[in-house]
Amino acid sequence: MLDLRDVDVYYGSSHVLHRTTLHVAEGETYALLGRNGMGKTTLVHTVMGFLRPRGGVITLAGERISGLASERIARRGVALVPQGRRVFPSLTVGETLEVSYRDGGREGWTLTEVCDRFPILGDRWGQTAGLLSGGQQQMLAIARALVTNSAVVLLDEPTEGLDPSRVTAVADVVAELARRGTTTLLVEQKVRFAVDLADRIGVLSRGEVVHSVAGGSMRKDPAPLYAELGFT
Amino acid sequence: MAALRGRWPTVVGVLAGVGLLTALPALVPSFYVTLSTRIIVIAMFALAFNVVFGMGGMHSLGHAAFFGLGGYTVGLGVTRWDWSFTVIVLVALALGAFVGLAYGILTQRTNGIYLLLLTLALGQAIWGLAFQQVEITRGDNGISGVTRELVPLVGTGALSYYHFVLLVALASTGSLWWFSLSPVGRAIVGTRESPTRMAALGFRVGLYRNIAFVVSGLFSALAGVLYTWHHRFVSPDALLWEMSAFILIVAIVGGANTFLGPALGAAVIISLEFWVSLHTQRWMTVLGLVYVLTILFLPEGIVGLGGRLRRRHASVDVPVIPEPTASRSGRSHE
Amino acid sequence: MASLLSHVLNGLSFGSLLFLVASGLTLTFGLMRALNLAHGAFFLLGGYVALDLLGRTDSYWLAMLGAVVVVGLLGVAFERFLVHRVLHRELAQVVLTIGAAFVIADQILAYWGGRPVMPPRPPGLGGSVTIGDLTFPWFRLSLIVIALVVFVSLWLLINRTRVGAMIRASVDDEEMARSVGIRVPVLFMAVFGAGSALAAFAGVWGGAFTGLEPGGEFSILLLALVVTVVGGLGSVTGAFVAGLGVGLVDEFGKSLFPSFALFTIYAPVALLLAIRPRGLLGRVER
User: Fold this and answer.
1) How many helices (DSSP H) and strands (DSSP E) are in chain A?
2) pTM for the complete prediction?
3) How confident is the model at residue A221 (pLDDT cuts 50, 70, 90)?
C-alpha cells in the first residue's frame, strides 16, 4: 500500500534518510522504532510531502506520491498525526474537525463518532484549540486525522506526554484503525506500546530501516528490539 | 599588509583598475565623464549600504536618509549658511553617523520584514521633514545653485571634479575594505550568520549592529555630499524611499555577498539607465523588469553568475540574498 | 463645532479609504506573509481601467465591475506566476513587487498619459447632507459606510465561514493545513485576487476622492502600509481601527501642523514599530 524505495532525504545539508526502503501492506499496522535523531519524523514528513526526497520514490497503492504537494497527497488518502500535536490554535475544536472532514462512506469516521470516542472534544466543541490542554490537543490532533477518512494514517509518537488513561485511548484508536482496515504507520520510541499493537516492526537506525520483524514474534520477548535500539 | 601577502595578482589587478579609472577621461569622449562621476558616487553609496545589508544581513529600506542628509548638508551649507568645506563635510559625516546610530538603536529588536518597514518609516519621516520644511529646504523645489567653489579641486570643470570624486571614492573604498577585514568587520558578518552563536560567544550583537549602521551612515552621507556637488542641486528626491529601493537593487544586482559587487551593480545599472534613456522613455519599466528578473533569476547578482555556472547543482535551496536567520519558524526534524 | 465635525468626518472618510486599500494588504500578509508593494499600482490601475471602460460603455457600474474583475484576475496571475516563487523570502517579495509596481505605473503612464485624472462619483451620490451648520458631501459619507460594510463582511468571512476557517488554519500552520487536504495554493491565489480587487474598487470609488496620477500609487501605498503595520500585519480589525486612526491623524496633522504633517505620521509609526513590532493587533511572531 505504502511503499518507500531507496528514498534519500536531506534536511538542510545533513543526509537524514539513506536509501530508505519500507513497505507497509494494505490494512497493516507497521511500527517504526528508533531513537531520537534517527530520522523517524523526517520519514513521516517526507511521506506527507513536507519534504521532498532527493532520490528514490514513494508510492501509494502503486501510484507515485513523492514530489507531489502535500494537499494532493492528503487527498489521495494520507493523514498525519504529527509530533507535537500541531493543532490550529485559532480554530475551535468544531472548526478544526469540520475543515478536515472528508466523507468516508458508511464505514467512515463521522464527527459524532470521534466525539463519542473522545468525549472531551464534544464538550469543548466551541473552544479555541489553542486554549486546550496538551492532552486534549493530542486527542484533537488524532480526531483531525481520523475524520479525513484516509486510507493511510501516519502517527508520530502519539503517546508522547500523555497520562496512562489517554495512552490507553490512543492504543484503542490504533486497534480500531486496524479493525477498519486502515493502513497505519506508527512511529514510536516506546517499544512495549508498539509491540502490542503492530503487525510488523521495523527499526530505523541512522536513516536506514535495519530490522523488520513480525510483531507477534516480538511480543513474548522484545529483547532483540531493545538491543537493536541500542539499549542493553 | 598581511592581507596582501600571496595575493599579488589581486594587488596588480586593483592597481590596474585604479589606473584605468584615473585615465578614463582621457580614453572616452568627454561626455561620459559626467556619467562616470555619477557611477562612482552611486557605487560609493552602494558599498556603504552594503555594510549594513551584505555584511550585517540587515534589510534596510531607509538608507536614502543618510544619502540625502549628506546632500542637504552641502545644499544648505553652501547656499544658506555659508559654511566652509571642512565644516560641511564634517557635519555631513557626523549627521550620517548620528542618524545611523539612531537607526541602529531603534532597530535593535527587529528583524526581517519589520526591520524593513521600520527603516522605511524612518526614511520617510526624514523625507517628510525635508519635503515640508519648505522655509528651510525649499521643499519640492529643491536647492539649486550649489557651486563647487568650496571644493578643493585642481582646475575647474567636470574633469577635475571627476578626479576629486575618484580620489575620495578610492579612499573610502579602501577604508571600507580595511573595515570589512578588521575584527569589528568580521564580527559584524558573524552576527549576520549566526547571531545566537555570537551572543553565546560573548559578542554583543546589538553593539555590532549599531557600529554597522554608524559606518554605513557615515559613508552614505559622504556619497550624498559628492552627489549634490556633482549635480549642483539637491531635492527631496534624494531622500525618496525609491532611492533606498534603488540602492538595494544595485547591491543585489552586483552581488551583495562580495565586497565590490555593489560597485559593479552601480556601474551596470547606471550605464543601463543611460543607454535605455537614449532610446526610450520607458526606463522605469526597464528598471522594474530589472528588479523582477534579478530576484527571480539572479539572486546572487552578476558576481554570483560565475559561481552558479561552476556549481553543478545547489545542494540546498538557500536564497543567497542575505536573509536574517530569525525570519522563519524553525521546527526540529529528526 | 461644525469645523471640528467636518474635520472628523473628513478624517474618517479618508481613513475609510485607507482601510479599503489596507485590507487587501493585511490579508495577503496575514495569510502568505507576502508584502505586496504593487498593491498601490493595482489601486491606480483600477481607477484608470474604470475610466477607460467608462469612456467606452458610458455605464459607471459596468466600468466599476470591469475594473474590479480585470485587476482581480491580474492579481491572481501575479500571485500564481511571480509572488508564488518568492514566498517566505520577504526581501525578495519586496523587491519583486516594487519592480512590478514600477512596470505597471510606467505602462499606465505610457498608455494613458501623466495627466492627473479623477473618476466620477458614483451616480446618485452627488450632493451633500446638512447637519446643523455643517454641509458634508454624501459621497464622502458613503466611503465610511462602505468601509464598514467591507469590514463586517471580511470579519464574517474570516471568522464565521468554512473558507475563513481554512484561511485561518493556513495562517496558523500551513503544512498541517495542507496535510488535511486544504488547497493552500488555491487559497493564496484567491486571497491575492480578492485583495487586488478590493484595491481596484478603492481606486475607482476612492479615486474620485483623491484623484489619480502615475506616481500616486506609492503615496497611497505608503499610507496603507502604515495602516497595515500599525494595525498589525494580518489583522483586518487592526487595519480598520488603524485606518480610521491614521485618517484622523492625517487630517488633524495637516490642519494643526501643516509643515510637519508627513513627519507626524511616519515618526510615531517608526517609534511604534521599534517598540512593538507587531503593531496594535498583530500576532506575535512564532
Assistant:
1) 10, 10
2) 0.84
3) low
